[in-house]
Design brief:
Shape: rod-shaped
Strand order of the largest sheet: 1-2
Radius of gyration: 26 Å
Order of helices and strands: EEHEEH
Helix content: 40-55%
Length: 82
Amino acid sequence: MPVVIVSGWFVPAGGVLVLAGILVAVPAALAAARAWWRPAEYQLWADYQGSPVQLYRTRDAIEFGRITRAVIRVCAGRSTTA
């Protein structure tokens, strides 16, 4: 049976594969859990007198889409000649 030395420990070769699998699976599972529990944040910004201003912030993608489309409609409806 092959043996691998890991940091001064004798580990069977199969154990190295298990350890490598754990080292990959645990961070991946934690990242997936974080993304599910805390979804991405959507922000709507504008430029007001040369300074960036945050108009709106949410974690709900559908709501953000509705707000964004409403702002675009309002801006498109305004006259550019005024």
